[in-house]
Amino acid sequence: MTRQSSKSTLFLMELVLAIMFFAISSAFCVQIFVKAHLLTTQSRDMNMAINLVQNISACLKNDNGSTQYLESYLGTEINQDTTIYLNENLDMSNRENHKYILEITQPDDFIISVKISDCNSKNILTQDIYTHKQLIRKGDKLD
């Protein structure tokens, strides 16, 4: 009788150890999948921010540093400090339903600072864009 109970005890211990091994392994796998999801989200947000900053920079370059073309691209007036709320498709949104925040500041006439953050105010990208406004001399004709 003791021999039979010791065999069943060993079998149960082996079974418990196998279950613990698979539980620990599955916990590591879940952590890997969560980390992969977070990296994918961060990468998507960074790519979106880079594309948006490139578009803003192109607007400024095409307009010789003026913000008129940028204002028509974004659909809003650009002041010294402008905050624009965007949804997940980068369309204008209201303050309650936004996913991204686009902040445009002009510390001086030659620098436009662009900051993109998520709805939790976590910074995604900050970029300074240097503009070179075309100087007009007296007597030059404007087109």
Describe the structure.
With 143 residues, the chain is of the alpha+beta class. 48% of the residues lie in helices and 22% in strands. It has two helices and four strands, in the order ααββββ. It has a four-stranded antiparallel sheet, covered by helices on one side. A hairpin with a 4-residue loop joins strand 3 and strand 4. The chain is rod-shaped, with a radius of gyration of 28 Å. The mean pLDDT is 84.
Derived from helix and strand composition plus strand pairing, the structural class reads alpha+beta
Number of helices: 2
Principal-axes geometry comes out as rod-shaped
Helix content: 40-55%
Order of helices and strands: HHEEEE
Largest sheet: 4 strands, antiparallel
Give the N-to-C terminal Cα separation: 107 Å
- Order the strands across the largest sheet as they lie in space: 1-2-3-4
Strand content: 15-25%
How would you state the average pLDDT, rounded?
A: 84
Task: Describe this structure in a few short sentences.
This protein has two helices and four strands, in the order H-H-E-E-E-E.
Write the layout of secondary structure elements.
Elements: H1 2-62, H2 68-74, E1 81-86, E2 100-108, E3 111-118, E4 123-130
List keywords for this structure.
2 helices, 48% helix, alpha+beta, four-stranded antiparallel sheet
